[in-house]
Amino acid sequence: MWQLIDFIHRFGLIELFLIFFVLINLLTFLLYFIDKRRAIKNKHRISERTLLLFTIFLGGIGAVVGMYLLKHKTRKIKFKITACLGLIITASVLVVLLA
């Protein structure tokens, strides 16, 4: 336990959060990519609920990039709204953190 606390103290909480932020957005993009591939191949898909949860939970940038770069889920209004909300939440957290 003390080693974890020492690691956080040395590395910095903001730096750790930024690493988490990048990873969650990469993971969100990857989920959209995998779901698009599975849709093309008519295989078992990632649930919309999972995609929406990752989109709203600080993965807004990865979701928007995934949606429009891969042309995936762009016709569904709930995905457009959730992606906008996820982007706003993500940007707000970044502004507070980096200010």
Protein described:
- The protein is mainly α and 99 residues long.
- It is built from 5 helices and no strands.
- α2 runs parallel beside α4 and α4 crosses α5.
- It is elongated, with a radius of gyration of 16 Å.
Radius of gyration from CA coordinates? 16 Å
Number of domains: 1
Residue share in helices? over 70%
The number of helical elements comes to 5
What composes the largest sheet? none
What's the helix-strand series?
A: HHHHH
- N-C termini distance: 30 Å
**How many β-strands, per DSSP?**
0
Structural class: mainly alpha
CA-based shape = elongated
Uncertain residue ranges: none
Estimate the mean pLDDT confidence.
90
Strand content: under 5%
Task: Give the structure's gist in a few sentences.
The protein is an all-alpha fold and 99 residues long. The protein contains 5 helices and no strands. Helices cover 81% and strands 0% of the residues.
Task: Detail the topology: elements first, then pairings.
Layout: H1 2-11, H2 13-40, H3 48-56, H4 60-70, H5 77-98
Helix pairs in contact: 2-4, 3-4, 4-5
List keywords for this structure.
mainly alpha; 81% helix; 99 residues; 5 helices
